[in-house]
Design goal:
- It is a single chain.
- A two-stranded antiparallel sheet has the order 1-3.
- The chain is elongated.
- It is mainly alpha-helical.
- It is 56% helix and 12% strand.
- It has a domain of 45 residues.
- The chain contains 2 helices and 4 strands; from the N terminus they run E-E-E-H-H-E.
- The longest helix has 24 residues.
- The mean pLDDT is 86.
């Protein structure tokens, strides 16, 4: 039996955490991205385009991984919802 950490949103597209594991994964992803923003501002000169590009790619990879992970852990499909299920 698969344990679902997220459920589809009632309005809009996506999912929302419903277990502590889902909330922990969400907070971890946010902290990774926020920590990388702080680290980039402290460690890298503003003119270093290569470093900023590498940082942007890393943030995109973390975001992509989190979306794919949460889709696999969602109880149902991701699709646009208007609130009332037919």
């Amino acid at each position: 039996m698969t344990a679902y950490w997220f459920k589809p949103k009632r309005y809009g597209y996506g999912a929302t955490p419903v277990t502590w594991e889902g909330w922990a994964a969400t907070v971890a992803a946010i902290l990774i991205v926020a920590g990388s923003v702080v680290a980039m501002n402290l460690l890298i000169e503003r003119e270093n385009a290569f470093a900023w590009g590498a940082w942007a790619m890393a943030v995109a990879a973390v975001t992509f991984w989190f979306v794919q992970f949460s889709r696999r852990r969602t109880d149902g499909e991701w699709r646009w919802r208007w609130g009332a299920e037919n």
